[in-house]
DNA sequence: ACTCATTAAATGCGTGGGCATCTGCTAGCC
DNA sequence: GGCTAGCAGATGCCCACGCATTTAATGAGT
């Protein structure tokens, strides 16, 4: 038996489910708020912002990041990310550039406008997080 | 100033972002695993299972639940839930029934098959939760 | 050097979700 | 009673996502 005698065999399960429901609720509320507010005020979706942020973080060093390394960090499939980058590119916020050493791959980098847009949206993003993650009875 | 002197003014922000990223990662991983495994083994999506579970929980008392009270608990819009119920109904897992006192509304209730399907899927659901929520450095 | 398995990214296709709207019903007001 | 405001749920529309496939380039084996 995996559990000590004084804990009923099914005891951890409610905890697990409760934890999952809490996670779901937080995620739904926060993601929804982010999507709506970022969308209204900065014309960015939640995922768009997340991608801009990762690009901004990696901006200091080289001039861009490979699509493939980006995908897992934003929890998006390769195809979804490809299209998302397409949208950002069409909006002038990022640039795709070939990399000479492996001509299959591409580098993605923020443009001036992309960097500006990210900086503009960041305060609202943080504000929403602060509002939504104010842990009520965590 | 909202923060004591020995904490830099921007100190809480990284915490907030880190918390949010952790939430995102957990949610993505768990939701993805649930969707895939429940789908493969029981032909149920994550949301479908969640709805069945709420219906099962409310099953003891009256014969069904109103669509409207169901929607917020599964973090779905009214329209999404309406379609989801439609899918479950087509699969024979739930039944829609008019309620006499307010003929605008409907009650949704599990069928025999729905109850069975839920019971069958439940262990896998818990197993996936246990596997994915095993808090790594929470 | 040529072939073939593999990899990076793009694209076709189907699906579930949200918003706006529509339909049918209820309830308050005259 | 008839009229209008408001509500429950269904539906049209569009969009973002994932899966499967395609296209192009690499690199290992011969």
The CATH superfamily title of chain A: Winged helix-like DNA-binding domain superfamily/Winged helix DNA-binding domain
Overall pLDDT of chain A, averaged? 87
Counting structural domains of chain A, the number is 1
Q: For the largest beta sheet of chain A, what order do the strands appear in spatially?
A: 1-3-2
CATH architecture of chain A: Orthogonal Bundle
Backbone CA Rg of chain A: 20 Å
CATH third-level topology of chain A: Arc Repressor Mutant, subunit A
Helical percent range of chain A? 55-70%
Written description of the protein model:
Two copies of one chain form a homodimer. Helices cover 61% and strands 9% of the residues of chain A. By secondary structure, chain A is mainly alpha-helical. Chain A has a single domain, classed as Orthogonal Bundle (Arc Repressor Mutant, subunit A), CATH 1.10.10. The first copy, chain A, has a three-stranded antiparallel sheet. In chain A, a hairpin with a 7-residue loop joins strand 2 (94-98) and strand 3. In chain A, helix 1 packs across helix 5 (112-132) and helix 2 crosses helix 5 (112-132). Chain A starts with 11 loop residues before the first helix and ends in a 6-residue tail after the last helix. Chain A binds a DNA duplex (30 and 30 nucleotides) through residues 45, 47, 66-68, 76-84, 86-87, 102-106.
Provide a quick synopsis of the model.
The first copy, chain A, is mainly alpha-helical and about 140 residues long. Chain A has helices spanning about 10-40, 45-55, 65-75, 80-90, 110-130, and strands spanning about 65, 95-100, 105-110.
